[in-house]
Amino acid sequence: MLHRDLLFVSGKGGVGKTTVAVALALVAARRGMRVVVVEVGGQARAQAMFGAAAAPPGREVQLEDDLWALTVDPAMALEEWAARQIGSRRLVHVLTGSSVFSGFVNAAPGTRELLAITKAWELGRPQRWTRGAAIYDLVILDAPASGHGLGLLRTPRTFADIARVGPIASQARAVSELLEDPGRSGYVAVALAAELPVSETLELEERLRDQLGRDFDFIVANALLPRRFTAAELEAVGTADGRVAPAVLRAAADLHAQAAEQQ
User: Fold this and answer.
1) pTM: predicted TM-score of the whole model, two decimal places
2) In terms of Cα–Cα distance, which of 110, 42, 112, 122 is closest to 81?
3) What is the C-alpha to C-alpha distance for residues 179 and 50, in angstroms, rounded to an integer?
4) CA distances (Å), 45 to each of 21, 40, 98, 105, in order?
5) Which tens digits make up the pLDDT trace of 162-221?
6) How many separate helices (H) and strands (E) can be counted in the chain?
7) Cα-atom radius of gyration of the chain, to the nearest Å?
8) HSE-CB for 145 with a 13 A CA cutoff
9) What whole-number distance in Å separates Cα of residue 223 and Cα of residue 19?
10) Phi/psi at 8 (nearest 5 deg)?
11) How far is CA 125 from the centre of its chain?
12) What is the rounded distance in angstroms from the CA atom of residue 189 to the CA atom of residue 91?
């Protein structure tokens, strides 16, 4: 799984996607790979996990050896891409400083999603948009919650079909090819062992298959409680004739019930 260009980590909000994304990144980094965890929507939770002050969006922040984090700034990503196409960063900076330009980025349907996923693609390219920028062996995208995450995956193919020719079409097509290639990209779902997150994960898997012809490479059941007691053990403790405090008995019974429900 770690020998891909991009890992896409998704799931229902609140299930621990960032925790799993960072855990995967730590494993890869401690094997000597240069890894970046990418967040979107202004989030900087990976940086907070390491006690780092949130850096401005668009800045790559080192968290520890071989491990970096980045919050995507769509406007900055578009400026970098346009400078690569035009060849003049100064001219592009003038264009991107206009209110019309920023209005386009914020208002055009799917533009922010396209820029976010394209920036994640760019981080692992042999030639970065910015000359001299370091290349990452593995990009781990901490995607938005389920439905919005699928929106990220869908936009490159949509833009490629709409534009058909030209630099936007070719760029979108290159990103779409990465997302559809099982040798270069991987998909990880994170769920809690509860009815709603499990149902949403199953639905997400079906939509991923429909849109990209892909399945999840693996699914993480997060925050899973161990089954510490058997029913016979609980019964034995319950007949201890006052030798065990009632609060302890209730706690043991509750824990057993929660673990059984998760299983």
Assistant:
1) 0.86
2) 122
3) 29
4) 11, 10, 31, 24
5) 888 888 889 899 999 999 999 999 999 999 999 999 999 999 999 999 989 999 999 999
6) 11, 7
7) 22
8) 6
9) 11
10) -110, 115
11) 18
12) 42
